[in-house]
C-alpha cells in the first residue's frame, strides 16, 4: 500500500504522514509535536481522519527542519513565513563559516538556571562572555559594560504582554540584542517578540543554537553563494508546481523554442523520482543511506533545472498561471 494518496486532477499532490517524514527527515513524533504546539502546518484530513499533507506543507517542513538542524529553535521560527525561512537558511550556510577576522560581540548571561551553560559559553569562538549574574538587578549593581552587545536572559514564561516589559528591559540594559531563554510561551508572545532586536530560544540553552543566533544577528558568517543550499544538504523548495509546469510546456510553440517544454518535462520527471526515492523501502541502513543520497541528489538536480527554466521564463517574458 502506497503512502501517497491519489491526487485529484488539477489538485496539489498529497501525502500521508509516513511519506512526509521520509521526505523531510522529521520523525512522526516530532512532527505531531510541532503541529500541536506550534501549528507549523495544517494538514487536511481524509474520510478516516488520517492526516493528508500537500507539497506546500512538505516545502515548509523541509525549511523548518533545515534551520533547526543549524541551531535555530523551532519556537522562534515556527511563525515565520517561507520567504523569511528561506532567507535565514541562505544566510546560515552549511555551518558557521566565519567571515575572516572579526571582533567578538560581548555577552552577559542573566539568570540562575543559565549557570549550567556558563562554562561552555566561556570558550565560544563566536562571542566573549563577560559575566554571569543570577539576577538582572545584580548586573545593574555592577559597573555595566560601555557597550553591551548581547544579553541572554532567563525568562521562564512568555506571554503576549511580555513584549512591552522585554523592550523596556532592552533599553535599560542598553543591549544591542536580547536572547530570551524560555520554558513556556504563547504563540502570540513569540509573534510579538519576533524582531531584529529580540530572539527567543527554548530552554535548556544550547551553545550551538546560541552561537548560531549571535553569528547570524551580528553578520559574522560568510555570505553563501548560490550553491550553498546544495552543500547544506537541505531539500530545495520547488519553484514551479505541477500546474505551472504543464502550462509552461504548452507555451513552447508560441516562442518557436522547445526549451520550456523539455525543461518542464524534465523537472516533472525529477519531481516524481524525488518522491519515489524518498518513499523506497529500505532493507538495511545501507539501503536507507543510498535512498537518502538519491533523494537529495535528485532534489538538487531538480532545483538547478528550475533555475534554468526560471531564466527562460524571465528572458522570454512568459506568463505563469496565477493561484486564482
- In the CATH scheme, the class of the domain at 106-221 would be Alpha Beta
Give the total of beta strands. Answer: 10
Shape: elongated
Amount of beta strand: 5-15%
The gyration radius over C-alpha positions equals: 23 Å
Order of helices and strands: EHHEEHHHEHEHEEHEEHEHHHHH
Overall average pLDDT: 75
Distance from first to last alpha carbon: 34 Å
So how many helices? 14
Tell me the CATH architecture of the domain at 106-221. 3-Layer(aba) Sandwich
Short description:
The protein has about 325 residues and is an alpha/beta fold. About 50% of the residues lie in helices and about 15% in strands.
Task: Provide an overview of this structure.
With 324 residues, the chain is of the alpha/beta class. The strands form three sheets. A five-stranded parallel beta sheet has the order 5-4-6-8-10, sandwiched between helices. A three-stranded antiparallel beta sheet has the order 1-3-2. A two-stranded parallel sheet has the order 7-9. Helix 12 runs antiparallel to helix 13. The longest helix has 31 residues. It is elongated and about 70 Å long. The chain starts with 13 loop residues before the first strand and ends in a 9-residue tail after the last helix. About 5% of the residues have low confidence.
